[in-house]
Design goal:
six-stranded antiparallel sheet, 2 helices, 122 residues, alpha+beta
Length: 122
């Protein structure tokens, strides 16, 4: 793993309310160490322009016990990181949400994955 941050995944969340963004980040923070702490509440800075929320998660130090979360609507997320990190992060997302793969872009050492998250049925 030659990547500068081989065990971290950058996450951009968009296309959703600030409440759903918070649900996603809070759920992921229960699984991984992150630069987004519990007091870091997503805010909408503009009423007219779309808002994008960012977070970085360290997948090397995974925590157990996160439960599937309820979203009021679907959430678009862009994941970027090393192949191993993105794969591990994607498996965690699968356990928490219904995940729809929208697109993938692969580079030499990094992968980008665009997904749509929805509440798991049941």
């Amino acid at each position: 793993m030659d990547s500068e941050y081989p065990e971290s995944v950058s996450v951009e969340i968009s296309g959703c309310s600030k409440d759903d963004a918070r649900v996603v980040f809070d759920t992921l923070c229960a699984c991984f160490a992150s630069d987004r702490c519990a007091e870091d509440v997503p805010e909408e800075l503009s009423q007219t322009r779309p808002t994008v929320w960012l977070g970085t998660f360290d997948v090397a130090d995974a925590h157990e016990g996160a439960r599937p979360a309820r979203l009021s609507s679907s959430v678009d997320a862009d994941l970027q990181g090393g192949y191993w990190a993105v794969e591990r992060f994607r498996r965690t997302l699968d356990s928490l949400f219904t995940v729809h793969d929208l697109s993938t872009a692969s580079g030499d050492q990094e992968e980008e994955l665009h997904v749509r998250l929805e509440t798991k049925p049941g």
